[in-house]
């Protein structure tokens, strides 16, 4: 197939393009030109800003069978792309389980009502908007798939997750946990996310809009459990301290991953994977310890990533709880 990938030059995107190439597809990547990954086979490139119509117009001349959209973060971005490419037979949208209205009944199936999830602010609102635009603009027989994923793990993530925890553990610093640190989260490894997105391009053939929850099988643990696994892999003791403050640790209504007490919220977030399993979108089991080990090895290979400092949120949480923590 001839596949257009929107984004695709960092983290999951790089791996997703590689997965498409390994499946034998012809791939063209639309990106801004700030990064040039090395892939295993030739890849076509169109450079531009997806928020600028004139930059998108060259895509209308491409002969493509499918679009894999990895960089749609607002409804307007989705709408503009669909206006330029109104009749592509198949579109796969990289989405998130944070489009759901939180429910105490776990796990959440795909028919869980839309939120927005309050903790994820405008991000959740806009990702819902992306899906709603796809639903309204692409009726059957056009095929549209939303792959809803939880927190993505993997080495060299541009959002420090394992790295956030590992750096503190390796330097003997106390890990602060929001709330009681016992909420459970579901995760997906970088390679599992990439493979699922690539498979969704070719193996999902239902007309209209279809959503699938996709995560790494049996990859669920609490915040404290995640810290303990990181400590086990790193071979160091873990010192943790709960700071209360609700799901964010500071009673903030919206989680800010750039300034957080801990990289995950203390709120249960688990999706049902039954539909994705039946559709063949799930990867074989990979132990969470192996995922963390890969991140640890990458961290040790790049000394510059070992430099860190407490976030403003951590310092505030320590001040609020009178914790004299290094």
UniProtKB/TrEMBL annotation:
Domain NAD-dependent epimerase/dehydratase: start-end pairs: 3-215
Classification via InterPro entries: Epimerase_deHydtase (IPR001509), NAD(P)-bd_dom_sf (IPR036291)
Pathway: Carbohydrate metabolism; galactose metabolism
Family: Belongs to the NAD(P)-dependent epimerase/dehydratase family.
The protein's name: UDP-glucose 4-epimerase
Source lineage: Bacteria, Bacillati, Actinomycetota, Actinomycetes, Pseudonocardiales
């Amino acid at each position: 197939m001839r596949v257009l990938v929107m984004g695709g030059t960092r983290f999951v995107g790089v791996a997703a393009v590689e997965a498409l190439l390994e499946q034998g597809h012809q791939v063209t990547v639309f990106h801004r030109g700030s990064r040039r990954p090395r892939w295993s086979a030739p890849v076509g490139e169109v450079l531009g800003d997806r928020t600028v119509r004139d930059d998108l117009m060259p895509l209308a001349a491409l002969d493509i069978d499918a679009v894999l959209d990895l960089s749609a973060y607002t409804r307007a971005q989705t709408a503009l792309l669909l206006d330029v490419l109104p009749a592509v037979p198949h579109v796969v949208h990289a989405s998130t389980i944070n489009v759901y209205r939180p429910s105490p009944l776990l796990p959440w199936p795909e028919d869980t009502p839309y939120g927005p999830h309050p903790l994820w602010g405008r991000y959740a609102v806009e990702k819902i908007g992306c899906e709603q635009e796809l639903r309204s603009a692409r009726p059957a027989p056009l095929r549209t798939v939303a792959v809803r994923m939880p927190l993505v793990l993997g080495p060299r993530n541009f959002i420090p997750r394992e790295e956030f925890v590992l750096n503190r553990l390796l330097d003997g610093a106390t890990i602060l946990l929001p709330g009681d640190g016992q909420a459970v989260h579901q995760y997906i490894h970088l390679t599992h996310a990439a493979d699922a997105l690539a498979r969704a391009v070719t193996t999902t053939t239902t007309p209209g809009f279809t959503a699938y929850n996709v995560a790494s099988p049996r990859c669920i643990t609490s915040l404290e459990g995640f810290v303990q696994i990181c400590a086990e892999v790193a071979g160091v003791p873990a010192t943790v301290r709960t700071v209360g403050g609700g799901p964010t640790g500071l009673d903030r209504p919206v989680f800010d991953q750039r300034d957080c007490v801990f990289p995950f919220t203390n709120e249960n977030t688990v999706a049902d994977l039954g539909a994705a399993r039946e559709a063949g979108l799930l990867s074989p089991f990979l132990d969470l310890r192996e995922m963390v080990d890969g991140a640890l090895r990458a961290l040790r290979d790049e000394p510059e990533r070992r430099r860190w400092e407490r976030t403003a949120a951590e310092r505030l949480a320590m001040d609020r709880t009178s914790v004299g923590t290094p």
